[in-house]
Write a structure and sequence with these properties.
By secondary structure, the chain is α+β, with helices and mostly antiparallel strands. Strand 11 and strand 12 form a beta hairpin. Helix 5 packs across helix 6.
Length: 250
């Protein structure tokens, strides 16, 4: 089976989108989807269904995207607003966790906003659904005790390539329990306990198999420890260990 038991409701919803678009000749616009949901939607729509599938991608590196399912080719309007966060950073810098936590505190569903983008130059943008943008602008007035305002922009300004605190590791295998032990600097026993507790996700899909091999490009998240990316896998050390470059997302 291509999906896990807890994903059944998502799969049924996506199958409903597919059938609705095919039978009623309708264009379907989804809410923001995470990486795993995008993967499931691509699988369900398929290559030979007669449908076109489009994903938004504001920065070129978006993780959360809206999708359009259409029975015909079209120029896409994903109904997205780009909100720039303005504040005085003289005394403090805001980070992704602070911003997302405050937005969620406004009782906004996660699938109504996309990525929070922080440029190398310090510019911060929130990708919002069109229907939620005004609410966010009117209610997001402070973050971590800092007064903030939001302005609607037409385009991004700055360099938005993902930033990682990268480090090379030498491992015996690409088993995920070993990788998270190395990357998050925890013991093997702790990594096994975290996996057993259901706290591990690979590309936003829950993973309970500690011996699953990771691949280059995988995004690994461990509840309470953060996220990291498998930047590269290649080469061996003199002792025969695999060289893996892991990057913690800043």
């Amino acid at each position: 089976m291509f999906y896990q038991e807890e994903e059944e409701n998502i799969v049924k919803k996506f199958e409903g989108f597919k059938n609705n678009s095919l039978k009623n000749n309708r264009v379907i616009l989804t809410k923001f989807l995470n990486l795993r949901e995008q993967e499931l939607l691509e699988y369900i729509i398929g290559k030979n269904s007669g449908l076109y599938l489009y994903f938004s991608n504001i920065s070129g590196f978006d993780e959360y995207k809206r999708a359009i399912i259409s029975p015909f080719e079209l120029e896409c309007d994903f109904k997205i607003k780009l909100l720039k966060l303005n504040y005085s950073n003289k005394f403090n810098d805001l980070n992704h966790r602070h911003i997302l936590g405050t937005i969620m505190g406004l009782q906004i569903e996660r699938n109504m906003i996309g990525d929070i983008l922080v440029s190398h130059e310090g510019n911060i943008y929130i990708i919002s659904s069109e229907e939620m943008a005004d609410f966010i602008k009117n209610n997001l007035i402070s973050i971590d005790h800092l007064v903030v305002t939001l302005s609607e922009e037409k385009k991004l300004e700055g360099n938005f390539t993902p930033r990682y605190d990268a480090k090379k590791h030498f491992v015996n295998s690409l088993r995920v329990d070993l990788i998270i032990s190395e990357g998050f600097n925890i013991s093997r026993n702790s990594s096994l306990e975290e996996i057993k507790a259901g706290n591990l996700k690979i590309n936003q899909r829950k993973e309970l198999n500690p011996v699953k091999n990771v691949s280059e490009g995988d995004i690994i998240s461990l509840k309470g420890y953060g996220r990291m990316k498998v930047i590269s896998v290649g080469g061996t050390s003199k002792s025969g260990k695999i060289i893996v470059e892991l990057g913690k997302l800043k």
